[in-house]
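One such given next:
>
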Amino acid sequence: MRLDIRGLSFSYDGQRQILDKLDLTFSSGDFVVVLGRNGAGKTTLFRNLLGLLRPQSGTVEVDGVDFLHLSAKERAKRIAYIPQESHPSFSYSVLTTVLMGTTSQISTLASPGQKEMETALAALRRFSIEDLASRRVDSLSGGERQLVMCARALAQNAPILLFDEPTSSLDWGNQIRTLENIRRLTKEGYLAIVSTHNLEQALNYASRIVMLCDGKLVADASPQELAMQGSLSSFYGLDVSVERIRGHYVCIPQTEDDDGMVD
């Protein structure tokens, strides 16, 4: 599976460019993390990738096919989306919610069968939430709902997974488990594109890091390359050093101590 972003530009008001001539290519097995300060264009990029917005110019292509030329069902067979937050309108069970992810794989008006049920249960087990299967979604915590959305996207069986800040509402343990699951999925051939504000998670889990600033692509590199370039300080407007400790990247900001001296 190959995702090509060609000359992608987008503006909401016809004046300020939210996305400005982005050119990117992603392939199966990539674990891509998109970094950007608030307002950098990450959410707008995702909405263009999903076909929810029409680019001002440029295209989003999956295996050479313009995504806007596909029906909603055909798009769902190719890309699954995990939002940062979910607010259920109906009190469905967790299992039913995850089963909804399989609808793009069955014919219109058909009901999920045993195959789809097995797919949903496997997705619940993947994210270690099978014990929530009978619970109502609206009774769950925000972090539990986030894991349910991850399972539903996996049940969709789409080769491209878009995660919008997937760990923002999770406790530390579930953050690590979710990132490890995403990494395993990419090793199985999925393409995962993840937006986050967590720099250390990006450096430790991504195979590629894409950095956006004012809608422009300012970096597309491996974590190792970014850690050595020293470009993170200028990107965030904050002096930061990156250290490697026991095989993990740790970001250390340089701040003033109580005496006003820089460490």
Summary: Confidence is low (pLDDT under 50) at residues 258-263.
